[in-house]
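Protocol check, entry for the methods section draft. Step 1: assemble the input record (protein sequence plus ligand SMILES). Step 2: submit for complex structure prediction. Step 3: store the structure tokens unaltered in the notebook. Ligand used here: 2-acetamido-2-deoxy-beta-D-glucopyranose. Step 1 record:
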Amino acid sequence: MGYSRFTLQWGLAFVFLVLHAVYGDVSYSIPEEMKRGSIIGNIAKDLGLDLGRLSGRKARIDTEDNNVQYCGINLSTGDLIVQERIDREGLCAKKASCVLKQELVLENPLELHRISIRVQDINDNSPQFKEDSLKIEIRESADKGARFLLGEAHDGDIGENAVQGYSLQQNDHFKLNVNTKAGGRKYGELVLDKELDREDKKEMMLLLTAFDGGSPQRSGTVLIHVSVLDANDNVPVFSQTVYKASLAENSPLDTLVITVSATDADEGLNSEVTYGFDHVSDENDDIFSLDSKTGEVRVAGGIDYEKVSSYEMQISAKDGLGLVTYATLMIEITDINDNVPVVYLKSLTNPIPENVSPGTEVGIINVQDRDSENNRQ
Ligand SMILES: *[C@@H]1O[C@H](CO)[C@@H](O)[C@H](O)[C@H]1NC(C)=O
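Step 3, stored output:
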């Protein structure tokens, strides 16, 4: 602290002197990140200074604009040495040219030399993506050739040591397209090469690698998580093409006859199935009901075997966006003994004479039963 105030006061006091006292400039070029104590160059020799008098003239290195004492001078050898970490990215960020400005100050007489130290980039940074993983949602109906922008990788280094390209892990569906922006920065896009099918594969993990052009080369990766979104590309499918049920006649209203079911391989609304009778079989609507959500077929009217002994209906299953499939529903009605035999007198000889002999036909009785088989015997 005391030292910097000292330099400031001296800097102001000697502003005119300084103008006269600038002797010569010297410049060096070094790679960034040299170890502390490394020799940048021999400044005494380069400026033709008397080694023996460096100490007596209080030779020292001052900084022009910041307080960090990056360099120092070895008074016995005249070497300019690294004192603090010199990080090009920290000093100059993305600037193409990075020059660290220092001054060598000597007293008796006051003498000032400008030192320019050009700091060269080394490949000390790896390309880096903002996040470890990237989520992309793609509709399964996306066409071949569809493009999906990927995040750009950043690299603290410059030039060849910055991001030079990308590579995508081998996979069945995507290729990588690498583009260059106006400033020379590169970014990638996924290009759909083979159409997706959510019902076949709904998630994919792809590793994207960014690499720089340094030596040795450095790289960074991001995991691309592709979610395939559903398109309504599947028709509902009934569990059977023909449903057969048997039902006793006179079954009470609401009796469950059968439950039909269809499934749809899509997702969400695309897989919500509703059931219904097909239009052509409207005449049976009042005899049976079909629950549009559950697929339950129930008795909704009078079932009389003697009137209709079997029903055949077309039923439909429709998904949320209107893809329809059909199945056949056959209901056999079984007879129950709901009819009493009826006796008909067909003919009768009346009156009959008193002397009629046994075995003489006097009348014909006809017995009928509307039921079937055993119920009518
Ligand atoms: C100056 O350099 C000499 C010779 O390399 C070394 O012995 C000495 O320790 C250095 N002095 C400082 C202050 O670094």
